[in-house]
Amino acid sequence: MNNSKQRIEQSKRYLASLGKIDTRTQFGGYSLAVEKIVFAVVAEGELYLRACEQIQPYVGAGRMPPLVFQKRGMPVALNYFRVDDAMWEQPEMLLALSRSSLKRAQQQSLDKIANPRVKDLPNMGLRLEMMLREVGICSVQSLRAEGSKQCWLKLKAAHKNVGINILFALEGAITGRHQAALPDAVMQELRDWVECLSLCPQAKK
């Protein structure tokens, strides 16, 4: 841990011109971020830069191995690549590569905002995104166009164990709210609709 702390301080000195660098625990190490955009990770005393076009030649030459994270006992290679000793001896090059990693991370963040995936919406996740994809709802646009009720009906037809909480989650995702923050009136209307379905299955609107 001490080695990582020292490396973080060294990174902050070398990369100070990028802006104020904040750190937090991540991947068993520490993430480095400027204005909440993560561009690097320090793990086991080493600095790893986020993937970008400018570091690919070094990765291809074997100079920058990936950060390997153990997940459930299995090694997973992440898109962060280790800065070697020679790079530390070339501060200008290290700064340029770090700036490229930061710019790439910033662009990815903007792209995510402009073109979000279903899993990035409130209450959603990869599993629910995959379930929706199975029933033909493959984008945020199609989710919103169908509406929470029709999406839920399609999921219910494919997965009998889908309950009302999924309906709340879908409504929250479409309206940009955590499902617990849905207005009581909205939640009650959805409950009434589900109850009506059980009594009148043809009322699927």
Could you tell me the mean pLDDT?
Answer: 93
What is the level-2 CATH architecture name of the largest domain?
Answer: 2-Layer Sandwich
The H-level CATH homologous superfamily of the largest domain, spelled out, is YgaC/TfoX-N like chaperone
Helix content: 40-55%
**Major β-sheet strand ordering:** 1-2-3-4-6-5
Beta-strand portion reads 15-25%
> Biggest sheet, open or closed, and with what strands and sense?
6 strands, antiparallel
Kindly identify the CATH topology of the largest domain: Yope Regulator, Chain: A
**Tertiary shape:** elongated
Number of distinct helices: 8
Overall description:
It is a single chain. The protein is of the alpha+beta class and 205 residues long. The chain is built from eight helices and six strands, in the order αββββαββαααααα. Strands 1-2-3-4-6-5 form a six-stranded antiparallel β-sheet. A hairpin with a 2-residue loop joins β5 (66-71) and β6. The protein is elongated and about 75 Å long. The termini are far apart.
Can you tag this structure with a few keywords?
205 residues, DNA polymerase, domain 1, alpha+beta
Which helices and strands appear, and what pairs or packs with what?
Elements: H1 2-14, E1 21-26, E2 29-34, E3 37-43, E4 46-50, H2 56-60, E5 66-71, E6 74-82, H3 85-88, H4 91-114, H5 126-134, H6 140-158, H7 164-175, H8 184-199
Antiparallel strand pairs: 1-2, 2-3, 3-4, 4-6, 5-6
Helix pairs in contact: 6-7
